[in-house]
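notes to self, project folder thing:

trying the whole complex as one job this time. last attempt i did each chain seperately and stitching them together was a nightmare. three parts in total, labels are on each line so i dont mix them up again. if this works i'll redo the older ones the same way
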Amino acid sequence: MEQFAQQLLNGLMLGCLYALIAVGYTMVYGIIELINFAFGELFMFGAFISIALMVDEVALFGRNVSMPGLSFFLAVPVAMMIVAAMGVTIERLAYRPLRNAPRLAALISAIGMSIFLMNTAQAIFGSKQVLFPDVPLFTTDDGFARTFSVAGAQVTYLQLFVVAITVVAMVLLNLFVQRTRMGRAMRASAQDKQTSALMGVNVNRVIAITFIIGSAMGALGGGLYGAVYHFARPDMGFIPGLKAFIAAVLGGIGNIPGAFLGGLVLGLIESLGSAYLPMGSQYRDAFAFVILILLLSFKPSGLLGSTVSEKA
Amino acid sequence: MNENAGTRKLNPLAAILAGGGPSWVQRAILGAVVAFALMLPFLLQSNRWLTLFTIVFIYVVLASGLNIVVGFTGLLDLGYVAFYAIGGYFTAIIMVQLVRNRWGIELDSVWWLVWLNLLFGGVVAAVAGAVLGYPTLRLRGDYLAIMTLGFHEIIRIVANNWVGLTRGPSGISGIPKPSIFGFDFNTQFRFYYLALGMALLSLFVISRMVRSRIGRAWTAIREDEVAAEAMGIHTSRYKLLAYAAGGFFAGTMGAFLGHYLNFIHPSNFKLMESITVLSLVVLGGMGNLAGPAVGAVIWMTLLEWLRDFEFVQSHPEVRGILMGLVLVTLMVFRPKGLFGSRRVALEMHPAPPGAVGKALVEGSDVE
Amino acid sequence: MSSRVETPLADATGTARPPAPILEIDTVMKVFGGLVAVNAVDMYVNPGEIVGLIGPNGAGKTTLFNVITGVYAPTSGHVRFEGRAIDGARPSKITALGIGRTFQNIRLFGEMTALENVMVGRHCRTGAGPLGVVLRTPGAVREERAVRERSLELLEYVGLGRIEGELARNLPYGSQRRLEIARALATEPRLLFLDEPAAGMNPQETQSLVRLVRQIRDSGLTIVLIEHDMRMVMGICDRVVVLDHGEKISEGTPDVVRADPKVVEAYLGKSA
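result (full assembly):
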């Protein structure tokens, strides 16, 4: 029973990490119908930049550069801002010119951007794993995670923090989308870009804001992931990025609470599946893809999406 | 009526789908290229270059096979290399795991099996193509792409973990070199010609298929699936045929790779490979016969040549950066690729406004 | 397996009866989510007729076409072609059975030439498979040659004999409409649906089209025509069916329909 609770907790936390990236995918897809493959890489950059800001010295392009050595709680928000700027730049350069092009072109551009970012990160930070510094609040001086017990399972402070932060972020985002003017503009653009533009919505600005938010959330996920698993690596974002997209589809693409739900469900399935299914841990990565295939075959609208009729 | 009257006036590209053969200009160019390729080993007396071009020929076939699916039929397949893997593992499992290990038969004595496997590796991959293609029939654009990617990853993960069948991360070694009636393909020189022969044969077959009612059906599906169906084309069947045809060539090349390297390993079939092959098609120009082959020659030659540089050896990410930049730049400035003609279509109808989720349902933009 | 209804041409009393309808539409409904696009429409078409299907925009005419040709399955009701139920069949099957069509918004294969477009139409009347095509068997070669010849003939027939090598998307509008008709004819239909074939045409082009449509009917086909050009409809159609808001509101010869107050009201509104 304790093991179950433990796995449940792990799954929840993993799910939160997926949810943070998934939200970006779902928002962007909702408005411009593009699968921004690069979100996985922005997640990865979030982790790396957080590390870079937290240490005293980091190796960039092979050379040692001194760094401010910020606290985790400062480094991650700064990383989020930097990655948000990256995200909006990417949109401007690689996606906006293709706004009216056939979808295949935009998709290939997104894939190209993803490859470019992954390899650039490797050029900057090297191909090996980089260690994520311990955070004093979450880790004791000996390097052990601080924990407390709940229902027989050991919950680390960090796990609790991840879940809490994700919930807060989701709630804030939902409020933003539902209650603010810009949020309304985003929802309108997701429904019908052309008409929104005719109604005076600055669609370009809406899309830029969407990328800023999505990228920032992804970077947050990256910083948290790095803290949890203690490392960052240039290729760490590719597969989680794909899984996050699958989570977004699972929840219903274009649906923000859906992305959160999808992320949680995926995280739980992965965690429990790898613990309890035979050979589960080896085939762990395959769960997401199997879910994807089942989903697209039987209920492409996802858990919270509406079934679409044939004709608009 | 003079049956040539119609084709005489057509421009050479128009003749492709109308069943006409290549114009004499095209034949001449083709002849020159083939002659050059045949003479190349004598011009470049180095194993290094022969190896490079053998690999290039493999990618020429892969790109051309993918072109059937992506370029002609308009189905964005991001997981094409899965079929490459299936062909490779097919021959490896049969020859090493089954024939040599399980049945204890000397591989030299079954030299003919190699050639059968080249063929059947393709057939098995073709069947897999149709099977995996089936769930994608109802999907459009991005979702089709992601599903193919999902299948690719599943196959790769299985290959990496089902140790009993595929020996997992160790890969399968000991795959024999091909030989025919005692003539062994054991030098780079001989492999070059074998690869060249297979490439020419594959391109020939693909060309015949495209310049026929089948090619017309594929192109019609790409251009307007609803209209194609209304004109009597069973679109599902022809999409499956496209997947099968594409899969066949990938499978054949996969088997060839196994016998060339004597070794099959999951790392040959990473997702990045699929994207690389797609890049070749996009770079060269989709939807025509020459484009992907040319794209493969140019790009793979460039990539392999870059490997000569010490800087690139210690910084392998340079190739990735280059590829990413090329893809983005290409899409923004010249989506039809280097040799795409006006006839190319990076065709995926954009969904009508306000159609989130509608993209998932088969085309219904008919009023 | 054909379920052709055999109707004797004379009944027991010796009175001649008309041949069975080539198309019967039986209480067909098509509902999309909340929208009832076609509401219990009954209709029939006799062999050799030219039937006009008219009605204000949004009346459901094209939707009805789409239901008959298999693009949509009817929500309820039946469609019978030559006595055989075709509701729910896929469009390619229905085309193979003998129904051809053009589209309201011209759906040609833009990157293919005029000739290739028409050759696509021959697809369901040919059968070469991958093996035949790759090996260039004599049968496949013969078939391909026949396809090309027939396609060139059809281009001539609709007046496009000189431009077979042009890409479809480069053709002028009027030529594109004709090309669509040639392509539909290539499928060897017995029943041809034309969806607003005269849209956007000037009077000369329309006259030319009228001649072509008559020629097609005289060659043995039955035609159903959606059109807004009333002069064309009244001039060429044997019978007219009127839809409004998804329902059939009138039916009969052009004169009858023209005088029907319900039809006038539908087009001009109650105040007229």
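what i see at first glance: Chain C touches chain B through 52 residues (CB under 8 Å).
need to look closer tmrw
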